[in-house]
Amino acid sequence: MRATVISINQLYTRFIFSVFSPFLVWIVDVWSFEIAFYASALILGGLAVLALVSLLHAIHIREQYV
């Protein structure tokens, strides 16, 4: 089971990269690498915050039923 979880994690990471990389390349072409790095940080930071909120919500719901 551990290998399956790692595989799904890598698949998710590659999916996120493949979705956002054309957008980041477009930003580099139009503006600069610096702006693209900031955009990447905002996108990945936003996804991390979304995942954290989702996790905390799931923990809160689980504690209600225990």
Residues in β-strands, percent = under 5%
Structural class: mainly alpha
General form: elongated
What is the total domain count?
1
- Report the count of strand segments: 0
Distance between the termini: 26 Å
Give the helix level as a range of percent.
over 70%
Sequence of secondary-structure elements: HH
Tell me, rounded to a whole number, the average pLDDT. 89
Radius of gyration: 16 Å
Please tally the helical runs, counting DSSP H or I stretches of 4 or more residues: 2
| Main sheet record | none
Unreliable parts: none
Structural summary, described in words:
The longest helix is centred in the last third of the chain and has 32 residues, at 33-64. This protein has one domain (2-64). Helix 1 (2-30) packs antiparallel against helix 2 (33-64). Helices cover 92% and strands 0% of the residues. The protein starts with a helix and ends with a helix. It is elongated. It is mostly helical and 66 residues long.
